[in-house]
Every structure is written in C-alpha cells, then in structure tokens.
User: Which sequence fits this backbone?
C-alpha cells in the first residue's frame, strides 16, 4: 500500500531520545500528485537550540565508550532494515522515486551504519626511540550538524551520521524541507536503539539550517547540497572556525572517444544520467561526443528516453518518478526552453507532462554547445545535452572549463587511451566506461566548487575527527 492510499503520515522530531513537539508545522507535497499529504514539524531557533543541547549533553559518555558505540551502530543497522517497509513508502511519497529505489536508499543507509560500526582509527606510533615516544591519536569533535538535500535524503544522511557517531561525535540532523518525513521516521526508529541525545532529528526550512550552523556548541557542519548554500555555510562556519565537509553540486562531463560503440555508450550513460530522474549530484550532465558518432549516440539515447516509463514511484513498473518539487521542475523546463531558443534540437522529450504531478519528459538535446545554460549550469533533472567535438584536446579543455569538479567519465573501446584522457580531467572522481559507480570503501569528494572534505571509506571517518599528538620525552 502506498502512503497516498494510507492514513496520513505522522512523524515527530527526535530530541534527547524523545518526541519533541514544535509549535509550527509545514506542508509536505507528494511530487507525483502535486498534493499535500502530510505536515512536518517546523523547528524554531529554540527547537534547534534544544536539539544541539541534547547532542552536547550526550557527547561525554558517547565519546568515551567505543565498545558500546560499535554494538549500538550495528543494532541501528538492524533496526533500519527491520523498519524498511515503514520507511520506504514515506520516502517515495515525499521524494518521488520508485519504491525499489527507496528500498535501496534505506539499505544503503543501513550499510553505512554497519560499515562504520566496525571501523577503527588506530593510534599511530610515529616515533619510539631513546629520545621520545610519539603517538598520533584521533579525537571526535563534539556535536555535529548534518544538513542534507532532497535527492537522496537517507543515503546522504547515513553517509554522514554513521561515521560521525562511530568516531564518537553526537549529531543533529536536519533534512530538506521537501523531504523531511523519512528522516524523522528514521529518528523515531533509532530512538529505540541509540542512547538519548546521540542522534537528534529536526525538520524545518533554511532558517533552521542556518541556526544550526551558527550555534556555538556545534563543532562541525557536514553538508550536502547546492554550491550556493555550501558557500553560505562556509561563511557561517568561519566566524567560529567550525570544521566543515561540503559535498556540493556537479556538472559532470562525459567524453565519448572516436571509435566508441554508440549503442553501448548510450546503454551505459542513459541509466546513470536519468536515474532518480537526473537528480543525482554525480550524474552525467553534459556529453561531449566525437562528431563521427554523435548522431548515432543521440538516436540511441533518444530511443531509451522515449521508452522510459515515467510515473508515480509508488506504482509497479515505474522507472522514472517525478522531479521532486515545483521550483526544480520549473528550472529544468526553463533550461530546456532556453536551449531550444538558442538553436538546440530536441531529439526526445522536451516538455512538462500535463497533470498535477511534477513530471518532465526524459529529454535529449543536441546541436548546442558551451555558452548555453543547460551545458554551463547544473540542470539536476531529466534532460541531457549531447555536444559534438572534432578535436579531443578541445573537448578536454571544454570539460574542464568550469567551476564544477565532482565527477566525470571517459568512454571508449581503447582502454589505455580512455585512461590517459581520464587523467586529464579535473574532478573528484573520473570513471572509465561507467559513471556514478561507488562503493563504501572508495573516497568521494569534489574539487573546485564541488566541495571541501572527503566522505566514504576511512577518509569519511577521519573527517569526523581531529588529531591529537602526544609526545612523551624519554
Ligand atoms: P540546498 O542547498 O538548497 O539545500 C540543502 C539543505 O541545506 C536543505 O536541508 C536546506 O534546508 C539547507 N539550507 C539551505 N540554506 C541554508 C543555510 N543558509 N544554512 C544552513 N542550511 C541551509 O540543496 P538542494 O536543492 O536540497 O539539493 C540539490 C543540490 O545538492 C544539487 O546542487 C546537488 O548537486 C547537490 N548534491 C550534492 C551531492 C554531493 O555529494 N556532492 C549529493 C547530492 C546533492
């Protein structure tokens, strides 16, 4: 049963291990119907303060007991998986993605808890001789603010909360106001497992986020979201020299080399560009294709776009859900319309789908180049421009001529050549003959404006610590 058919969703904030009432609420819209289906607590500055104080109170005992942390984080993974059927329909109703993808989000969040539960950062002995015994120890930072966006509310929050808690910090989580309910639900589920105050979950607008980033007891801000908000958070953090990890937007280039098989490339690029309806930070967002194969690649991509089943994520058979919210739908439409005004050819899609939901046709554009907004900016939606090139050096230069630096990929039959081109791209990650593939032990980071700091793997755990050198004279 989908949430839209079931009784209204009712979830509360979690502060100090208990439900926390707020005076105000805000509406949550199901993007597949365009209708309000629930309300969420709207945290005031006083509620933010209560959450941060609860995290600060829980910190001393949490940080001092690594054994309990390990047991509790493994139990948290179990609890999330046990509550899968409750969380999944809520996530699909507020975010739009198909139920199977919502299930994968919950499973991935649980995997992060399990992965970091057992990871240690052992002390390093730097010197042990007649002059000194020198050790490097990693310490937690204190209460951490975790602020997440609406495209993968649970996976992205899990990638931060699990290492933060494993390292001995305590957390206040604030999801996006477009997708607050699944995170609040996770807070409720984990109340049963985590000691009071270790994880506090509140919801609210951007002001609540800003109140977290300026709170004097917060020692680190771990943020995923837009570049504009990332810069505002960096500025807010600077006043108190709070530590930050910023995972920000991307405009990933894809370079398709001469001699590549256009159908194989289309079959590889399309699902990665259109998964979650293109609302993925590291999705392919602009394709540079050698002119000799561009028409065939465009046709193969267009065919896949026309065949994709767009619909309500809670219905069986849906492959692509709606765009998450109306402003984002309008932005995607505006960028496609702008490209068409600048002479782009629409090979597939090109318009909003009639109805109350926020649906946009999977769209393939070509006959356009740099200087057009959908090429230069992050579209974050189901529309992909394919740009022709004749000179590889020129394609590499255009791929790099941007403030973005999250992901990128190179596709071709000649692996050695593709790998050599990969080395020349400016990005946190460059894939060869794939894109977006990730595992928990691989570090993930953006360069340039796409981010500061590293998540995942042991680097993700280190990011929630600072070092303490103990130098003992002999
Ligand atoms: P957003 O920046 O608008 O909002 C993200 C979060 O920040 C929300 O919870 C919001 O309430 C909060 N916020 C807004 N203003 C704030 C402020 N001044 N202080 C503190 N918090 C504030 O981003 P979005 O539209 O929700 O997400 C889409 C963006 O996220 C895209 O650019 C996408 O590329 C990026 N993203 C990046 C990654 C990554 O890992 N690099 C992953 C997913 C999404």
Assistant:
């Amino acid at each position: 049963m989908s949430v839209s058919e079931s009784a209204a969703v009712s979830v509360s904030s979690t502060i100090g291990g208990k439900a926390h009432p707020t005076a105000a609420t805000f509406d949550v819209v199901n993007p597949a119907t365009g209708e309000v289906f629930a309300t969420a607590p709207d945290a005031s500055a006083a509620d933010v303060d209560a959450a941060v104080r609860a995290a600060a109170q829980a910190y001393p005992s949490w940080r001092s007991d690594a054994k309990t942390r390990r047991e509790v984080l493994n139990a948290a993974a179990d609890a999330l998986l046990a509550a899968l059927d409750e969380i999944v329909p809520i996530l699909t109703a507020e975010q739009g993605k198909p139920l199977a993808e919502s299930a994968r989000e919950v499973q991935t969040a649980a995997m992060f808890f399990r992965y970091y539960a057992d990871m240690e950062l052992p002390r390093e002995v730097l010197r042990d001789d007649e002059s000194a015994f020198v050790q490097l120890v990693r310490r937690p930072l204190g209460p951490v603010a975790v602020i997440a966006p609406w495209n993968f509310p649970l996976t992205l929050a899990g990638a931060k909360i699990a290492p933060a808690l494993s390292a001995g910090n305590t957390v206040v989580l604030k999801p996006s106001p477009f997708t607050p309910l699944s995170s609040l639900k996770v807070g409720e589920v984990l109340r049963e497992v985590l000691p009071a105050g270790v994880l506090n979950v509140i919801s609210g607008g951007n002001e609540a986020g800003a109140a977290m980033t300026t709170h004097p007891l917060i020692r680190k801000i771990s943020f995923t979201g837009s570049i504009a908000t990332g810069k505002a958070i960096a500025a807010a953090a600077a006043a108190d020299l709070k530590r930050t990890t910023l995972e920000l937007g991307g405009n990933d280039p894809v370079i398709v080399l001469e001699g590549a098989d256009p159908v194989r490339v289309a079959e590889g690029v399309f699902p990665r560009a259109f998964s979650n309806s293109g609302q993925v930070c590291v999705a392919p967002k602009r394709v540079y294709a050698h002119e000799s194969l561009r028409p065939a690649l465009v046709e193969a991509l267009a065919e896949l776009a026309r065949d994709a089943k767009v619909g309500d994520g809670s219905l069986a058979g849906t492959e692509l859900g709606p765009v998450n919210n109306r402003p984002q739908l309008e932005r995607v439409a505006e960028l496609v319309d702008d490209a068409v005004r600048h002479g782009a050819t629409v090979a597939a899609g090109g318009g909003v789908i009639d109805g109350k939901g926020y649906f946009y046709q999977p769209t393939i554009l070509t006959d356009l180049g740099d200087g057009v907004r959908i090429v230069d900016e992050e579209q974050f939606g189901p529309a992909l421009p394919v740009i022709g090139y004749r000179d590889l050096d020129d394609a590499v230069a255009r791929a790099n001529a941007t403030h973005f630096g999250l992901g990128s990929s190179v596709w071709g039959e000649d692996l050695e050549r593709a790998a050599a081109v990969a080395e020349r791209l400016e990005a946190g990650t460059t894939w060869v003959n794939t894109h977006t593939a990730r595992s928990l032990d691989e570090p993930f980071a953006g360069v340039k404006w796409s981010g500061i700091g590293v998540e995942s793997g042991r680097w993700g755990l280190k990011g929630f610590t600072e070092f303490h050198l103990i130098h003992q004279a002999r």
